[in-house]
Amino acid sequence: MQRAMNLKEHLCSSALLPMKIIDKTPLQDEKGQIGLMGRIQGALKYGFNWSAQLEAQLTVIAQLDRVLEKGFVLIRNFTLPNSEIVVPMILLGPGGVTVIHVVTVKGFFEAKGDQWNTVVNGRAQPASSNLLRIASGFARAVQVYLERQRIELAAPVEPVLIAADPGAHIESMRPTARVVMSAAVRQFATSLLQARPVWRSDIAYTLADQIVDPQSPRAAVSAGPQQPDQPPSGAARAQAIFNASEQAKPFDTNDLGFAFEEEGQDALRPVAEQSGFADATPPVQKNRILGMSTAQVGLLSVLFLCEICILLGAGLFLMNQ
Question: What predicted TM-score, i.e. pTM, was given to this entire model?
């Protein structure tokens, strides 16, 4: 049975080329691994739930990769230039650009409009962290980033919130971000695969390169509505989304209309949650050492001292044996 399953997977993988994955997760080594010190630093900088979020991302990516194929590019944990905004997932495909925020929450929730509520004993109340607004904030940040690069899309960037834990139960009522539960990830991927194309199948690769490296040479391609795999017309080329690099403006978080800051267990949280991001002031840049605040460095120092004490104690114990 196992051999038959492996053969089936081999046939599927040989018939369809997989989607391309660009992993920009901070603190990784050359092999894509995060060591103990990297995990400690990541927990201090992005929240103590950071490692769990990374594992949840891998679970979701594995499910997406089984369905999506050539023509799709996934950029993981990309830090927007000149900011500390780490976008969890940017998925580019023939149907457009989707920003995915994977969370590890458990329990009963309600996604109603732009409200994210917890449900306890049948009663809904606002959650301490509005995950819908966070997902929408990531999408808005990517939208502004692309606009600053003079990249015009046929459709707005779509925000998606994926609850990776099977213990999360969400009732959705026209939420501002698409909500996907763990059991429906493959169904979500299939919907992307079947979406009406808005550009040629090769555009996603060029656009991904431009997102990751804004200084890369810009190709004369159009992301406007076209028939798939048809070359753009002369007019389309004249209105190419990738203009000369000197025309692109640096990304500025002030253009977002809201601010992000590190708080609680969330890697990044909108500051102006209760005001709908309107007229939020930019976060004050604090003095940082290796990307960490003074308090975080202090906590890390305490952990180091504890480790040293443990090592010294173990050494003394062995010497007395």
Answer: 0.71
